[in-house]
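Two proteins were folded this term; both appear here.
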Amino acid sequence: MKKILIVSLIILGFLVTAFVQAKSEDIRPNVSNVLREDLKQKIQINETSSGNMAWLTGAKITEISGTATATPNLIKVKVFGQDYKIDVSATTNVVRYSWGKSVINLSEFSVGDIINVYGTLDSTDYFLVHAKTVRNVSIQKLHAVFTGNILSIASSTNSFTMEAKRTGIATLTVNTDSNTKIYSGKNLKSFSDLQVGMTVMTRGIWDRTMSKIQALLIRMKPFEAEEDDED
């Protein structure tokens, strides 16, 4: 019978290792002042005949390298204060919060995002995981819109900040690129047509952890009715 190795934090700076038969058991820290994000973190390693399979849940990204090229990429994360490296290859399944496909070069990812990782633990470096699936739970493609006034514009980066009315978000950073469509009524506009104080409606790839969105569509007020895009 396979043994499942569960690695979990007892918040005093050390890891607890436990072997259990037949099924996995979670070892939870019994400390009242533990950070909420740490309580959601988990490390699980399954011993198999083909190697050790690793699950990292709630890992926080501290560094991303290699995004200038397609693959491979390396993500550095922290779980329970311990640093881990995630190897993202051309065959890694990279997805968003809602399991929609993300891009393999990690251009949608940001330092501070929270990810879940499934993959193979390296045979010599026990803090390196060769990822089969990376799910960024901080980003998702919206089937809704953000509406609010533009607060500031950064022409050098083709981005702006805006209010996000009725969302509980104080401000939202909107990034645009060559794929972003900007409309006033039915007329196609450019980034230079945007102005501080203008009311806009925007939709795109939302990074809810970093309060930013990669805009697919921006509409200036008054708005034209339009069906939502599919994820």
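Next, the second protein.
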Amino acid sequence: MLARSRATAALTCAAALVLGACAGAPGALPGPGPTATAEMMVDYPYYELDEMVDQASLIVEATVVSSEYVVETPTYVPGDNPEEDPLYGLSEAEKAAALANVDAFVSTAVRLRLDTVHRGDLSAGQEITIMQTGGVLDGVAYVAHGEPILEPGDGYLLFATSRPDGAFHTLAGPAGIYAVSDDGSFTATSASPAPADHLTAADLAELLG
């Protein structure tokens, strides 16, 4: 289960309110910028490289077009076991109480143009949205530890899966994000929990079989 934390493992997120965006200045909000920063420690699972390749329904090279902050409100998706559903086995009253205590949170919706599709039912030239943890809300910049926000104009190799709302998220947050280098190789954007610091085009081809 690709869970941000056990408490929200089966809570999928629907965008509720676009706070602001500016192409070329990702996540820029009108008026003064954030006046405080809050760092979040996000509990992502760890994948070996071959596991990450197996789990990804979308593997692409893509260039960031723009980004914007959105407030997301969790919605409950039942599961068949405790690993899929952190509320598994609770009564309806207990589930309602637990869900009532789950707050909305801010994410960054990153729009990317696909350059190369290694896996997935999409084509080069199409655009997708990747949701990343963190953003600006009410003057506070929420930053996920070790998870840099994708930068407009930069190219990335992404290992991702789809969300019910049509957007995507990368496996284990920053672990599924590699920056594309000028020589065509790929470098992890975060040392942890990335399963490999560096990949060549040959490495990727071998992993994809």
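The chain has one domain: 6-208. The mean pLDDT is 82. These notes refer to the second protein only.
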